[in-house]
Amino acid sequence: MKLGPSITLVPIIHGSSYFAQHVRTLCTENRYDCVAVDLPAPFRDELVHAVDHLPYVSALTARSTSERITYYIPTDPTDASIEAVRQSRQNRTAFFCIGYPEITTPDAIPPMPDSYAAQRLGFDAYTSLCVRSLDPVEPGTDEDTHCRFLAHRLRALSADHQAILALVHIRHIAATVHHYHQEYSHNASFDQFPDYRIQTHFVNTDHLYFALGELPFLAAKFEKERLDPFAQHVEPVESIKQLFTETRTDYYRESEDPFELSPAKMQIALTFLRNLTVMSSRFMPSLEDIVQAARGVGGNSYALRVLSNAKYYPYLPVEHTGNLLGVGINKVAFPGSREAIPAVNLLRDFALSWRTLSIRPEPTKAMKQKYRFRWNPLGMCSHVPEDRRIERFNAHLRARALRVLCEDHVRSEKFTASVKDGIDFRETLRNWHTGRLFVKEIPPTRGKVDTVVIIFDEDHDEEYPHQATWYAEHQQESTLTFFATNPMDEMIGPGIARSRYG
C-alpha cells in the first residue's frame, strides 16, 4: 500500500513467519532509506543492539516506576517487525520505532485465518480480509491516540526521507491511514510520556515456545535458511513434515528399543494431523495437534520426542547461560530471581492458554531393571487389546484366502438369458470389438480355512527366540503358536513387556 509518494505501508500481524518473509522480500527487491515499525519508541536504542545478537533470542523488558507490570519484546526471528529491524541493520539504513511512547497492554485480536491462506489469496487480499474482520477504532480511545501518533510520526519521517518502509499493526492500519490524511497530523501535540527502565536479557531456550510466535523448531529453520543465500523460503507445512521425519531419524539412532515407524505410518500420522487441524477450523496445526498425531502412531515415547524437538532451538548463548530470562504465559522471571512476575509480551497478538496432554514417559534403565527382576514368567498372559487385533487380522486373512479360492474357480461365458453372478467387465472389454456381453459364474465355496501361517520376517530367525503356544479360551479366540522377540528385552511397565512377532 502506498501512503503518499514516499511511504510504503505494510500491515502486519506479530509472530507470523509469512509476514516476516514478505518484509524480507520487499527489502530484497526494493531499496529504502528508512524503516519504521509500530513498536513503542522507548525500545528503539536497545532493540538495535538486541537484533544484532541474533540468532540468539533476547528480550527487551520495560518497567516504569508507576506500574508493577513488566512489558517485553522478544527478538523473534519470525516476526515481521524484528525482520524489518534486521534488514535495516544489514542494508545500513535508518530505523525508527514510531509506536506510542506510553506502553499499554494491547488487547488480543480475534482469531484470524491462518497465514497459509495468504499463499493462495495473495498478501493484499489476505490483509484486506483481516482488516475488515476487525472492529474499527473508537475515536478518543487509547488506540485512537496511538494511531494519531503513528500518523504524526509518518508525516515527520516523510519530510526527511524519500523511500520509507512503514510496518503498522493490522489493528491500527485503518485509523492510521485516516489520521494521516487529516491536517492536524502535521502539528499534533501529545502529553508528557513516562520514563521506562529498559533492560536486555537472553531468553532461556527451554522457554522460547512461550516467547516466539512460531514453534522454535520452525524459527531455527528460518535462521538456517538465512545462512544460504540461494535457499528457498521455508514452508511451514513442509517444516511440520520434517519435524516428524527428523524426530523419527533421531529416535532410531538414540532409542534403546526403537518402535518401528515406517513411511506408511508417517503418512498415517500426517493424515491424522490434517484431520485434527481441520476439526479445529485451521490450516496450520497447533502444538497440541502435532503431539496427539505423533502419539496416535508412534506411542508416548515418540510423542515426547516430537514435543521436545518442536520446542528445541539450537542457538544457545553459552557465555550468558547464567543470566537467562525465564518466560512463561504472561509471566517472566529475571536472572537470579525465582519469583515469576506478571508480564506482557508486546509481540503476542493471540492469547495463549494451558493445555493438558496425556503422555506417559518411557521407563528409565533403572526402572526397566526393576521390572525385569519382578517379572513372573509363570503368570505371563497376552494383552486383550492386542489379542483382538490379532484375531481381526486372522479373520481377515481367512476371508481373503477363501475369496482367492473362489476367484480361481470363477467361470466367464457369453450372455444368453441370465446375468448369473454379474457382468464380467474385464472379459466384456477384452471382447468389445465383437459386441458380445460376458457374465461370470461363481461356484459355491466348499470347506473352510483351518491353519493360517503368517511370516513377518523370514530372514532373521535368530531375532525371535521366544517360542510359545497359547490355547484358545473361548470361541472368539484361536490357538496361537508363535515365534517372537524376548519379552525380557523390552520391559515397558510393571508386569508389562512388549514382543514383536517374527
Short overview:
With 502 residues, this protein is α/β, with parallel strands linked by helices. 37% of the residues lie in helices and 16% in strands. The strands form 5 sheets. Strands 3-4-10-9-8-7 form a 6-stranded mixed beta barrel. It has a 4-stranded parallel sheet with strand order 1-6-2-5, sandwiched between helices. A two-stranded antiparallel ribbon has the order 11-12.
Can you describe what's shown?
With 502 residues, the chain is an alpha/beta fold. 37% of the residues lie in helices and 16% in strands. The chain contains 15 helices and 16 strands. A six-stranded mixed β-barrel has the order 3-4-10-9-8-7. A hairpin with a 7-residue loop joins strand 9 (331-333) and strand 10 (341-345). The model has no long low-confidence stretch (mean pLDDT 84).
What is the count of helical runs?
A: 15
Indicate the low-confidence ranges by residue numbers. none
Helix content: 25-40%
User: What summary fits the major beta sheet?
Assistant: 6 strands, mixed, barrel
DSSP strand (E) fraction?
15-25%
Structural class: alpha/beta
Morphology: elongated
Quote the average pLDDT: 84
- Beta-strand segment tally: 16
Radius of gyration over alpha carbons?
A: 32 Å
Query: If strands are numbered along the chain, what order do they take across the biggest sheet?
Result: 3-4-10-9-8-7
Gap from first CA to last CA = 65 Å
Assembly of the depicted chains: single chain
